[in-house]
User: What shape does this take?
Amino acid sequence: EVQLVESGGGLVQAGGSLTLSCAASGFAVDDYAIGWFRQAPGKELEGVSCRSNVDDSTYYADSVKGRFTVSSDSAMNTAYLTMNSLKPEDTAVYYCAATPLFTQSVLWLCNGRSPLTRAMDYWGKGTLVNVSS
Assistant: This one.
């Protein structure tokens, strides 16, 4: 059974850092395309970062470029989202998602051109990040 479990969220002051973890089971995290998404209160789901398993490229939303970094640990079968210089507007529930193949639909979901969350086959339940000013 494929499962994704996020952890690492919490309350942090503006300017601080957090690293979110996405523990995967049922598949090898480095073999799948992994995406990080977030949903702030009252707002739509937003793509944060998506890593292709085709060419290993990584997309970052403009709002997080230079501050957020994705990585993974194959031994732990876990993906990570390291968030630095956090801002109050980063407050949201953060989700990781996975799919066997990075497609155009995945990229469009990630960059906001498409709202179709079915582009990612598997989703975690999310972890809350609250950035105080």
The helical segments are 104-111. The mean pLDDT is 96. The longest strand covers residues 18-25. Residues 15 and 86 are 5 Å apart (CA to CA).
